[in-house]
Amino acid sequence: MEKILELLQNLITFDGSNKETANKTIDFCKDWLESKGLKPKILINNGYKMLICGIGNGDRKLILNGHVDVVSGKPDQFQPKIKNEKIYGRGSADMKAGVVAFMVAISELKGEDLADTSVELQLVTDEEIGGYNCANFLTEQGYLGDFVICAEPTQIGIGFQAKGILQFDVHIDGKSAHGSRPWEGDNAIAKALDMYKKVLDLPFSKESTDIYEGPSINLAKIHGGEVYNKVPDECTISFDIRYLPSQSKEKILEEIKQITDGEITINLAGPSVRNEVSNPYIQQLIEVTKNVTKDNKVHIFGQHGFADTRYFSRFDIPAVEFGPEGDEWHGDGEYAVIESLNTYKDIIVEFSRNF
């Protein structure tokens, strides 16, 4: 436990909310892995560093995917604190706890006969800003496998599905008029709000699955109007839609185009993660988790947000979010549960040995 906790304390001190320090974190991880006799390598894309470290020579590949970048935090959050069996600090849960467990796990597995299995650790530096420079790059360059574990904080539950993401702006035109005679104009803001109400009644908005009650539809931004005494003739309304694995962004956009003549500009789109619980690797992970935790129940759920799993999912590679216990990630009180670090590491070791 001391080894894994000390490593996490060291990683928390790196303010990886900027590219330069996230890259330095990768350098630190490389040095640590080399000190354990491993042979990591660093790739760079658009100035962002990635670390790759493999063990075993089997044809079946397990990928352990983690990110060392973090969202911004207060200075004291990069000074780790231990209290009540928890370690506090920015990135403690999201997701340096999982990263250190991965690192210690492959250091323990080094030199073992993994039979037909190879394990590849992938550490990246831009997950919090979209993953386009790292996970997107790695998967396009062929760094793929048979199964992917992404160590997001899941309380040692398995996030086996995830919603897709569709963020877009709609520019709506109206007609200006004097504010005292609004009936002579066509209020663009009012049109935008009316459009939002119609979106909530579209067929895709009413769909559900066994995992999800429905898609997430967030009215994220609205910009329009100049002065009090003028009917606004322009408005831009912005949506953040997290759609179901059973849905497609193309069908959603088709429905939206039927209710507006506004100009639609897509800001961000990413696929959903569409695994089934019956997948043999997921079933094996469930059994290993039960065995290590001595608990017959493993929480299986669908994520509303998204992670780097989506980059593997687009290649039809099963990828899950599965990580240690923690809470308040992205918040001031972010922490990881210390006891779960070793438990999680042991799960990864046993799963790798039996993969």
From TrEMBL:
<protein>
    <submittedName>
        <fullName>M20/M25/M40 family metallo-hydrolase</fullName>
    </submittedName>
</protein>
<dbReference type="InterPro" id="IPR050072">
    <property type="entry name" value="Peptidase_M20A"/>
</dbReference>
<feature type="domain" description="Peptidase M20 dimerisation">
    <location>
        <begin position="162"/>
        <end position="260"/>
    </location>
</feature>
<dbReference type="Pfam" id="PF01546">
    <property type="entry name" value="Peptidase_M20"/>
</dbReference>
<keyword id="KW-0378">Hydrolase</keyword>
<dbReference type="InterPro" id="IPR002933">
    <property type="entry name" value="Peptidase_M20"/>
</dbReference>
<dbReference type="InterPro" id="IPR011650">
    <property type="entry name" value="Peptidase_M20_dimer"/>
</dbReference>
<keyword id="KW-0479">Metal-binding</keyword>
<dbReference type="InterPro" id="IPR036264">
    <property type="entry name" value="Bact_exopeptidase_dim_dom"/>
</dbReference>
<dbReference type="Pfam" id="PF07687">
    <property type="entry name" value="M20_dimer"/>
</dbReference>
